Fold this sequence. Notes:
8 strands, 41% helix, globular
Amino acid sequence: MKKQVTIITLVCISIFQLIAQGKVIEGKSIASKILGKNVNYSVYFPPNYDASSGRKYPVLYLLHGYSDNETAWVQFGNIDQTADKAIANGDITPMIIVMPNGDLDWYVNDYSGKVRWMDMFIQEFIPTIDKEYKTRASSEYRAISGLSMGGYGSFMMCIRNPSVISQCAGLSSAFWTSEKAFEVRSDDFKQPFWPTKSKDKDEIFKYYKNYNVLDLMKTLPLDSLKKVRWYFDCGDKDYVTDGNALLHLALNERKIEHDYRVAAGYHNWQYWRTHILDALKFVTKGFDRRD
């Protein structure tokens, strides 16, 4: 019996070793003239990236949530382990995953035009990644995903730049009605959507309409919105689940194709670690034309 256990253990170890491992590099940065500072990022390379001299790869930009940084998806989300296993199983295509630090800026240009994070990302960050690494440098092979603040940022990035990024996959995305956004505003919750000291609801709504995904999906030209493949996923006990459900209804109303999912869960890493795999599978369909 002991011998059988040993054999089974060795077989399991051998199978595990057959799963080729990718590589994560942290502590990378670009010097941004637009923001006037360095922007840090982490990057995951799929297995055999260094050995594949002529091959180029699609890119997923993966955004962290509020109060985290560019290391979160590796440290708490185990994205490298998930990607390695999914690539080995043939569930997803080999891809580069780039994780930038968004600070507390919500991945947009602020209302005053002083902090232009989105401009930095489109004009400086993506071109730098395409120059430094073996990427397929076209919109067809670019996707963006993220959790909470990062899910919101992913949607805003594609809403504003549908010719640059062709796929969006948000997890527990921070979507709010204008009324809800007014309720949750706080001096210690940095928001670029309106003057932070403003207490006037009408003034806040005036600014927020340019940042409200729910409103923008209802008003922007259909031709632009339909250029992007949309995916979003939220736990049924998450505090942003209502906003995600409202977005689903808004997209249905305008007949915009999308993949919307709800599962048991909360606004936490246990949920995101589990559900990022479905987001990876979704963008793979676009990259590999598996639909």
